[in-house]
Specification:
The protein is an alpha/beta fold. It is built from six helices and seven strands, in the order βββαβαβααααββ.
Length: 173
């Protein structure tokens, strides 16, 4: 641990901080043409509201059909974060708290943001046998359920969820 000043409500206070690890995965679903600025703003909002530290972000996760989405790619490049993608078939195998019929109809899975965050946080490979029956079975802390962000007059929309990797390693036989 080390002491360092931390800004709280406009004041600087001395706090103890454990060396921060990148353990948070941000799951993102977005409409085509969503800007990196809107995605970045959504992340900032969610992290501020949930008192999460952005430097703990390990990466961004989404559906494979968004692998070349300009806003996502730009955001990952600007933040130097990996973009992890999963097929709709893999995403649909994850039990999530907020599945959406409309998402299932449009992209073939009832969840993109929540399922992608959960899967990325497991640190499992897509070759692992699915489905799992619960988030607990995956040994992931699901921190933030999906939130949808859209700004009037700006193109696009983003759905965001956050999951944390477990300190325990996972071995699947």
């Amino acid at each position: 641990m080390r002491n360092h000043p931390q800004a709280l409500n406009g004041r600087h206070e001395l706090s103890q901080e454990i060396d921060l690890q990148q353990v948070l995965w941000v799951g993102i679903g977005c409409k085509r043409g969503t800007s990196w600025e809107l995605i970045d703003w959504a992340i900032e909002q969610v992290f501020r509201e949930n008192q999460l530290v952005q430097s703990a972000i390990a990466g961004i996760a989404t559906i494979d059909t968004k692998a070349s989405e300009v806003g996502l790619v730009e955001l990952c490049n600007l933040r130097n974060l990996p973009l992890k993608t999963f097929s709709a078939q893999i995403l649909r195998s994850v039990c999530v708290p907020n599945p959406a019929t409309i998402t299932d109809q449009k992209v073939g899975t009832p969840s993109v943001a929540e399922a992608a965050a959960i899967l990325a946080a497991t640190q499992l490979t897509p070759l692992t046998v699915f489905p799992f029956t619960s988030i607990e079975e995956l040994r992931v802390m699901f921190l933030v359920p999906k939130r949808i962000f859209q700004v009037k007059g700006q193109a696009g929309a983003v759905t965001l969820a956050v999951a944390q990797t477990s300190n325990n390693s996972i071995t699947i036989y």
